[in-house]
Structures are given as C-alpha cells and as structure tokens.
Amino acid sequence: MVWAVHRRSALRVTLSCLAAVAVLGGCGGASEDVRPAPATSAASGTKAKKQRLEAVMADCMKRAGFKYVPYVQPEKQKSAEEKLRAAGDYQAMRKYREKYGFGVFSIHVYPEELNNPAVKPANAPDVDPNLAIQSKLSKTQFTAYRQASEKCRVDATKQVIGKVVKSTQDYYEQINRVSAQRVDATINSDPALVELATSMATCLKGKGYRIGKATPSALYERGRTEFHQQEDKLGRAQRDDVPDVAPPSEEGDLPMYYVPTLTPQEARPYLTKEIRAALDDLECGRRFYPAYLPRQDRVNEQVAAEFGMW
C-alpha cells in the first residue's frame, strides 16, 4: 500500500502525517528532533484545548448522524536521551543518526518499532477508538463520515480556538505559515545563528553536498527534506494516478509526499545512504544544532499552544 502524507516543516513531531491521520489514524517515525515536554502550564493549557475540541467534535458528529468518541492521544513522556537530542547534544544525536539517519527511510527498515501505518503494529496499547468506528463503514458511509468530520473540525476550530479555517489542510497550512514567520523573525534573523549556519553550509559543500538556501531553518530542514523527496519519488513510481515528478508548490503550502511500500530489505540501501549523509550533516553542524534546536522548540511550543494542535 502506498499512502500520501503532508509533511510540515517547523512542527516536525506533532505535524508529520496529516493525510495518514485522516485515513489510517496516524503514522510513525523516529523523528530525531524530539521536543522536550513543555512547561506544565503550557502543556495543561494545550491539553485542555484538545479536550474541548474533541468534545465539540463529538457533538457535531452526533448531529450529523455519526458516532464519534472524544479522544486525546496521551502525551508521551520524553526519555533522557530524547531530551538530550532535542537540546542538540552531539553524542545523543550521533547515536540516533547511526541507526535512523534523519528519520525517513528508517520507518521502512523498522516498521513495527516506528509504527509504520502500512503494517500491523506489534504493540499498540492506545488506539484512537474512532478508527474502529470508521473501519465498519461502507464506502458510501465512509465518504459521508469524512465529509462530516471535515466540516466538524472546521467548526470546532473556530468555536474553541477562534481560528477561521476552510479545511483541515488549511488549518495546518496556517500553522505552517505562522511558524515560518516566527522562525524568520526570531531565528533566521539572529546574526549568531546565521554565522553558524553559514559555517555549516560551507562544511557541507566541502563534503560534496548541494546547498540551496543557507538560512538557519533551511540548514535544519535540508537533509530530511532531501530524503523525503527520494522517498516521494519511489512512492510516485508505485502509483499510476499521480505524476512521476512532484509539481512545484507555493511557499507556505504543504507538499504532498507519496510514501512507497518497501520491505526492510528494499529500504536498507536507502537508509545506509541516509545514515552516511546524516552523520556528515551532524559533523558539520555540531556547533549549529545546540544553538538552533532550543530556539526552534520555543517556536513549536508557542504555535502549538496557539492552535491547539489536534
């Protein structure tokens, strides 16, 4: 099975799988830049918003004639190792990258460990109950369910968060734009970070890597984006209903990546290349990441609190 996902740039962990969430109930992946748990007050505020969103969603779906169970995914407590990676600790990041690279092709090599939605997970103790509800619907009922769900999400977003959105995709595009604006204002304009990013870019060029924009956020995105594009190329080749080459997207849009079906054996050569590139990236950015990642994390927390992040 080939599935399509929207990959958002700035809010990497919480916004990685829009289309997969809508159809399959989520997608996994060992995202390297794990956000540490936010402050208790911020976390509780965001959780309360999510709970209100889900309650409004359930009432709306009931009026549309569908059962919907309010569900907020439990917050995963970050390990000490994950917190070190989020802070840009070199040794912790290296340990991760030696196995998972940038966290792209690893989902195919370790499908059960990373909760690849294309395979049955070995252990999924906490599952959204709405997936079981959807699985029992006929094709016609499922289409009607998705249409009602989309409208209800739009209505709930306006009622609880005060954000006017046209669709679920528009909701995430607004998040993407707001996040990008704040990164530009607070991170990409910082002279010290710009200097570190320039040094990292020079190092990577010396190792033979192509560098486009050399802003701090572009350097942070570069490696993972490159391998997502490779993954997308494979996914498109497995389908006959999409163009072989991704069309250009406007700035702020959410590019649609088509994730291929790969066995661990098929994916291993791609992951091997990714690991090599990720280690080179880390060596060149070993001064950059400790300065950049905590700043990116603060932006993530602010935007998540503002938008509710459901």
Q: Please list the strands of the largest sheet in the order they lie side by side.
A: 1-2
Q: Helix count, per DSSP? A: 12
Into which percentage range does the β-strand content fall?
under 5%
The radius of gyration is 20 Å
- How many strands, what sense, and barrel or not for the largest sheet? 2 strands, antiparallel
Would you report the number of β strands? 2
How many angstroms separate the termini? Answer: 26 Å
Flag low-confidence runs. 6-30, 34-40
- The helix/strand series, from N terminus to C terminus, equals EHHHHHHHHHHEHH
Give the overall pLDDT as a whole number.
85
Share of residues in helices: 55-70%
Whole-number total of structural domains: 1
Structural class by secondary-structure content: mainly alpha
What sort of overall outline do the alpha carbons produce when their principal axes are compared? globular
Describe this structure in words.
By secondary structure, the chain is mainly alpha-helical. The chain has one domain (3-307). 59% of the residues lie in helices and 3% in strands. It is built from twelve helices and two strands, in the order βααααααααααβαα. The protein has helices at 18-23, 40-63, 80-86, 90-100, 106-109, 129-135, 139-161, 168-188, 191-206, 216-237, 264-284, 288-307, and strands spanning 3-6, 256-259. It has a two-stranded antiparallel ribbon. Helix 3 packs across helix 4 (90-100) and helix 8 (168-188) crosses helix 12 (288-307). The longest helix is centred in the first third of the chain and has 24 residues, at 40-63.
